[in-house]
Amino acid sequence: MLGALLVMASIAIVLGAVLGFAAIKFRVEGNPLVDKIDAVLPQTQCGQCGYPGCKPYATAIAEGAADINKCPPGGEEGIHKLADLLGMEFKPFGGETLPKPKAVAIIDESTCIGCTLCIQACPVDAIVGAAKQMHTIIAAECTGCELCLAPCPVDCISMEPIPDSVSNWKWKYPVYALTVSK
């Protein structure tokens, strides 16, 4: 009987040591909710929400310091996803934040002087070119954040709305909005 107690005590000590080591080794840094919110955001780092990037905006949402309806690139689809994640009601865009139509930057290559300021400003590396050479936009990578507009000294960049087509059209309402509750 004493032998069984010693075996059980030693197993408990070993398991306690393993759990203690695991708690230190696999400690969660920060708030996991922030990471989930950040994953829903479009990662444009554009600052249109009033925060310097998506992670600070996600942190503010998780702390309750910001509303979920401040991200123009995420659109209403992003607001719906955030509302679902947080168990909140959908909030339409409000205040100074307004939804913008999807757009892509276009560079007038005949005017471009190759200063590379737009390349440095682009958070998603959608602009290619070299110093003293014309630049161009990779349209499939451009998020329409407009961060490349301000640094351009010759104003050769413009935003062109993306027309709806079969390849980029999305259903504007989530499926759950169409279900009829009983």
Coarse shape: elongated
Number of helices: 6
Please tell me how large the radius of gyration is: 24 Å
CATH architecture of the domain at 101-165: 2-Layer Sandwich
Oligomer, anyone? single chain
Percent of residues in helices comes to 25-40%
What are the segments in which pLDDT stays under 50 over at least 5 consecutive residues?
Answer: none
Q: What is the number of beta strands?
A: 4
**Amino- and carboxy-terminal Cα gap:** 62 Å
- Text of the CATH class of the domain at 101-165: Alpha Beta
- Estimate what percentage of residues fall within beta strands: 5-15%
Subunit structure: The complex is composed of six subunits: RnfA, RnfB, RnfC, RnfD, RnfE and RnfG.
Main location: membrane
Binding site for [4Fe-4S] cluster 2: 112, 115, 118, 152
InterPro entries: 4Fe-4S_dom, 4Fe4S_Fe-S-bd, 4Fe4S_Fe_S_CS, Elect_transpt_cplx_RnfB/RsxB, RnfB/RsxB_Proteobac, RnfB_subfamily
Sum up the structure in keywords.
mainly alpha, 3-methyladenine DNA Glycosylase II, Chain A, domain 3, Alpha-Beta Plaits, two-stranded antiparallel sheet, 6 helices
Q: Which helices and strands appear, and what pairs or packs with what?
A:
Blueprint: H1 2-25, H2 32-40, H3 54-63, H4 75-86, E1 103-107, H5 117-121, E2 127-128, E3 136-137, E4 157-161, H6 175-178
Antiparallel strand pairs: 1-4, 2-3
Short description:
This protein has helices at 2-25, 32-40, 54-63, 75-86, 117-121, 175-178, and strands spanning 103-107, 127-128, 136-137, 157-161. With 182 residues, it is mainly alpha-helical. A hairpin with a 7-residue loop joins strand 2 and strand 3 (136-137).
